[in-house]
Amino acid sequence: MRMLRVKDADAIRDPELYLYTVANNLVKENALSDSRRSACEDIDDFAIQEQLGQLPSFDGDIDTEVRSERLREVLAQLSPKCLAAVVLQYRDGLSYQEIGARLGISTHMVKKYISQALRHCRRRMESLR
Question: Which of 98, 101, 102, 120 suits 21 as a labelling partner, its CA being 20 to 30 A distant?
Fold first, then answer.
């Protein structure tokens, strides 16, 4: 669509390069939009915590072992500190303050890591359905 909006199409010397540039800009805009949207979410809100804590639903024919293996694969894609924050909260039950102290990061960064991890897991688990 952006390429079609150009009034003087002859001004585009290399259409393929222009197309790649437009695509690259769209990817950046999408990533920026995602990060702005996640920054606006207050993960301390009970309703959001409840929603983020729920795994996406799967069809009944996929057993727990397969889902667990998929979750392990998705978690392995996280950065080490992001994964550590998730493990310390969900497995060990630590608070944001305790996690921050253990990892040497701020409480705000702990919230950010957990939010990123949950968003990543939701997307990847959904795509594996």
Answer: 120
